[in-house]
Design brief:
- The structure holds 2 protein chains of 2 kinds.
- Chain A is an alpha/beta fold.
- Chain A has a domain of 157 residues: 3-Layer(aba) Sandwich (Rossmann fold).
- Chain A is 32% helix and 29% strand.
- The longest helix of chain A is centred in the last third of the chain and has 18 residues.
- By secondary structure, chain B is an alpha+beta fold.
- In chain B, α2 packs antiparallel against α7, α7 packs parallel to α10 and α9 packs antiparallel against α10.
- Classes of the chains: A alpha/beta, B alpha+beta.
- The structure holds adenosine-5'-triphosphate (ATP) and magnesium ion.
């Protein structure tokens, strides 16, 4: 247990959205731990709270109740600017829709993470080239997103999520925009990157087949987690 | 910040329209400023050129040379006032001048001064019957050594040489010794003729005292004068304040238009970028960084517009025929206009600040469509 420290520890997290006069419970006493280099599939129907869970784990949304610790840092009481700095250092996101910066090349889309955060310069450029190589994008590094295929864009987004060497990477339906075959390729890439970079990962999906690439699956229904 | 610069370089097309509009505004602003400067310059040159501290008019003249009379007795009183160092008489007559080679109705407007103390850039008075001519009269065909005929009496004045920036109420300055001026005045404006030793006004150099106090002392001693500092005399010239306030209002409105253009353009751009800003915030971008990028883009656009505008106004200045409109393009005016535009750009961006702050990084996740 000790050689695989906990990367994410969520305890009794509740998220209630208030819409008009009614409360929507998007997450209900969710408790989840993910270890380093462990990959957890989060499976559930639409509206069950998957995106909400990822947003809270990644520090872009504050919970109504509960405690969240990522890589030893308790972010429960963090201010907005503390959360910004936390995201720079410890989390990677791959969004449901591919959101690359349209006027930056593939390589620059990775480097943007460094420019917004630590500004390590040469070290960041080295890391970007390494990631692009792993992702099979070396010969596409100077292409703009509009000059890449859907699968290639998703791979750039994966590279961007790993740029800051995060403790935790959150994939929100990374393959929903891709066909089955490309989806499988991207999942294999994610699997090998997560293993080699020793980070924890949560992969959100509707798709049962994707769970095969993960170490375990967690089901979510109406904001409640249950082991598969 | 680098992101903002890259966007400018990579997607110039998005910014072209706004830059063009701002360029037109910059041209307008600089052109209007140049017109104001030109008008003021041609109105006030002769008074501005006075190398003195005070101008003494008679107290009923409302600071107009034409209505003012200072006789030798009054002058003697002024010379005795403590702090008065040097006193010179001055007078002017505004006339149409016939220039050899021009048509009979093509008169040059001149203001012939008689003077004792030399203004800035004007040498000592030349020989009787001759005068230093202002550069602007070259546009009317006036040349050195030429004799021009002044007023209905066609009084001959020979041009001894040229001086600069000495126009008076839009008329080109001619600078002669007092007797020459008095003679031309007597022959062309018999009703306004002045006896020997009588001037319209006095220019006074002060030493060892404050000009304001000396002015008060002069008026107290004579009991019949109104003494103004040179700066006050300039703003008392007919039309100066009206021109300044009218033009400054138009310039102000133009700056506001620039501000509105910037505010609208960047507000639209911010709305368009909401998704991108959400993603960047999720990746750890601070609102401050994103807003700074916006300001940097706005400042660069206005700086480019100002530079192009300044270039265009310089070209316009070359192209318009000399003497047709009183455009005077001064570097200080161009710089001032550019600074106003850049400030307008920064203020304009501020309208988008709240929107940038309010972009929610959580909007980046889960936006499936
Ligand atoms: N900003 C919000 N305001 C109010 N309710 C919200 C908000 N965001 C999500 N919800 C609600 O919270 C619940 C969980 O939403 P969430 O986006 O986490 O679902 P999801 O499992 O990601 O769904 P999908 O598979 O469709 O992406 C839903 O009922 C949703 O309507
Ligand atoms: Mg979702």
């Amino acid at each position: 247990m000790n050689d695989r420290p906990i990367a994410l520890d969520m305890r009794d997290v509740r998220k209630v959205y208030r819409v008009g006069d009614s409360d929507i419970v998007a997450l209900d006493h969710a408790t989840l731990s993910v270890e380093r280099s462990e990959m957890v599939a989060l499976v559930g129907p639409s509206g069950s709270g998957k995106t909400t869970l990822c947003s809270i784990a990644g520090g872009i949304l504050s919970p109504t109740e509960g405690r969240i610790v990522v890589g030893g840092e308790d972010i429960t009481g963090h201010s907005e600017s503390q959360l910004t700095s936390f995201r720079q250092r410890k989390v990677g996101f791959v969004f449901q829709s591919v959101n690359l910066v349209p006027f930056l090349t593939a390589r620059e889309n990775l480097l943007v993470v460094d420019e917004l955060g630590r500004r390590t310069g040469a070290a960041a450029r080295e890391r970007a080239d390494e990631l692009l190589d792993d992702l099979g994008l070396t010969d596409r590094s100077k292409n703009l997103p509009s000059q890449l295929s859907g699968g290639q864009r998703q791979r750039v987004a994966i590279g961007r999520a790993l740029m800051n060497d995060p403790e935790l990477v959150l994939f929100d339906e990374p393959t929903s925009a891709l066909d089955t075959e490309l989806g499988a390729q991207v999942m294999e890439l994610i699997r090998s990157e997560v293993t080699s970079s020793n980070t924890a990962a949560i992969v959100v999906t509707h798709d049962e087949r994707i769970t095969d690439y993960c170490d375990r699956s967690v089901n979510i229904v109406d904001g409640k987690l249950q082991a598969a | 910040m680098r992101l903002a610069l890259r966007e400018l370089v990579r997607r110039p097309a998005r910014f072209v329209t706004a830059t063009l509009i701002l360029t037109v505004i910059a041209i307008l602003l600089m052109f209007l400023g140049g017109l104001l400067d030109g008008l003021i310059r041609s109105t006030t040159g002769a008074v501005r050129a006075q190398d003195a501290d005070l101008i003494v008019y008679s107290d009923t003249s409302q600071a107009s040379f034409l209505r003012s009379r200072i006789d030798p007795a009054t002058r003697a009183v002024v010379e005795e006032v403590p702090g008065v160092f040097e006193v010179g008489g001055i007078g002017v007559v505004q006339l149409g001048a016939r220039v050899p080679g021009n048509g009979p109705r093509d008169l040059a407007n001149v203001a012939l001064f008689g003077y004792e103390l030399t203004p800035d850039g004007v040498p000592d008075p030349p020989a009787p019957g001759t005068a230093w001519a202002d550069e602007v009269l070259r546009d009317d065909g006036v040349e050195e050594g030429q004799t021009i005929a002044l007023g209905p009496a066609r009084s001959p004045i020979t041009v001894a040489g040229f001086v600069e920036d000495t126009s008076y109420l839009g008329q080109g300055g001619l600078w002669a010794e007092p007797a020459t001026w008095r003679a031309v005045l007597a022959r062309n404006r018999p009703d306004a003729r002045l006896g020997p030793g009588v001037f319209q006004a006095l220019v006074v150099r002060v030493e060892g005292a404050s000009p304001g106090e000396v002015a008060g002392a002069i008026d107290a001693a004579t009991g019949s004068t109104e003494t103004l500092t040179v700066d006050a005399a300039i703003s008392e010239l007919p039309g100066v304040e009206e021109q300044q306030s009218t033009f400054n209002q138009i310039i102000g409105v133009t700056v506001v238009v620039a501000l509105v253009v910037i505010a609208l353009f960047f507000a639209l751009l911010t709305v368009e970028r909401t998704a991108l800003y959400g993603v960047l915030k999720a990746l750890g971008a601070r609102s401050r960084t994103l807003f700074l990028g916006l300001v940097v883009q706005a400042v660069i656009l206005t700086a480019i517009a100002s530079a192009v505008g300044a270039g265009m106004v310089l070209v316009i200045d070359r192209l318009i025929p000399p003497g047709s409109i009183p455009l005077y393009v001064a570097p200080s005016r161009l710089v001032l206009s550019a600074v106003l535009l850049v400030l307008a750009a920064i203020v304009g961006c501020a309208f988008s600040l709240r929107r940038v702050l309010r972009v929610d990084p959580a909007s980046a996740l889960g936006s499936s469509s």
